[in-house]
Write a structure and sequence with these properties.
It is globular, with a radius of gyration of 17 Å. The chain is an alpha/beta fold. The chain folds into 2 domains: 130 residues, Nucleotidyltransferase, domain 5; 76 residues, 2-Layer Sandwich (Nucleotidyltransferase, domain 5), CATH 3.30.420. It is built from 6 helices and 10 strands, in the order E-E-E-H-E-H-E-H-E-E-E-H-E-E-H-H.
Length: 231
């Protein structure tokens, strides 16, 4: 399918308990969905998607670009969304853009020229998935790739720079929602939803860089089998 300057696009993110979908018509987000479904996600996602396409007034055959979150995130959820995205992209012969979920978290922050934004996704055993980005206008430039580190090491790495912090699970009893040792970033986008995923994915699609579009393969740093997963 030939890409257009202002493409019709679909965003898919199932990397957490939240089903996040969005549809853009001629480059403008016209329908989106963001809700915590948990185990109901696999059974409800296709019906939700069909409703969004109807709301947007387009069909799946009209989609020019598909954007998918590739983790880190839920083991099963991330695979589910990527498999769905790859199937649609192959069926439509259209480009597929993979977006790191940590980039999505960082994109929630207010852009400050030259500012370093740290994105952290709390995992287990006081560990976090971490990546760092720098604002260049409205574009996020990766400064440190996705990695796993101890929470105490994140405090050292952030060096007082703002952090967008998200949890897989609610905090334990007497545990604060946001670690007090970190500086909370000011957010302009309250949720890492499909509309935000579309914005980041379409920006990457328009400016793919020297290495081309990021592959739509999962990022999961704790299981060797998952790193080698092929859909």
């Amino acid at each position: 399918m030939t890409a257009t300057i202002e493409p019709n696009a679909l965003a898919i993110d199932t990397s957490s308990d939240y089903l996040s979908l969005a549809v853009a018509r001629e480059g403008i987000t016209v329908a989106s969905y963001y809700e915590r479904l948990g185990k109901r996600m696999a059974g409800e996602m296709f019906g939700v998607l069909d409703g969004l396409l109807q709301q947007a007034g387009i069909g799946l055959s009209d989609i020019d670009v598909i954007v998918a979150a590739r983790g880190p995130g839920s083991f099963t959820g991330t695979r589910l969304g990527l498999a769905m995205a790859r199937t649609f992209a192959q069926g439509q012969s259209c480009p597929l853009v993979g977006v790191d979920t940590l980039r999505l978290l960082a994109a929630q922050a207010e852009p400050e020229p030259g500012a370093i934004i740290h994105a952290a996704l709390n995992s287990i055993r006081d560990e976090v998935y971490h990546a760092a980005y720098r604002w260049d206008g409205e574009i996020l430039i990766e400064q440190a790739p996705v990695s796993v580190m101890a929470l105490e090491d994140l405090v050292t790495s952030a060096q007082g720079n703002p952090v967008v912090f998200r949890r897989f699970l609610p905090p334990k009893k007497d545990e604060p929602e946001f670690p007090p040792e970190l500086v909370s970033a000011t957010l302009r986008h309250p949720h890492p939803d499909g509309a935000l995923l579309l914005r980041e994915g379409l920006a990457m699609y328009a400016n793919p860089g020297q290495e081309g579009l990021p592959p739509a393969e999962p990022i999961y740093l704790k299981t060797e089998a998952f790193r080698k997963w092929k859909p």
